[in-house]
């Protein structure tokens, strides 16, 4: 099973959506969704984008073994912020990470 197929199934399970819901949210047909989940095909970039949006994960997470779902969710939320929000978040993270009680 390839990375995309694993991540696609994992994202579906974590979202609580049915396959038909993913098809409806992404605008892709049921046959394509079935082919992706069964590893017959991998989506083209535009379809991958729509799947990522439907599942609330990043395209990178769906195609890479290097980022967790929770990290992907944080990244998606970060990208929704304007420049002021991003700056404030970075400052907040700097403050937290410099405090020993929050370190691993």
TrEMBL record:
SUPFAM superfamilies: lambda repressor-like DNA-binding domains
SMART domains in the cross-refs: HTH_XRE (SM00530)
Gene Ontology MF term list: DNA binding
Domain HTH cro/C1-type: residue ranges: 21-62
Protein name, UniProt field: Helix-turn-helix transcriptional regulator
Organism for this UniProt entry: Roseburia zhanii
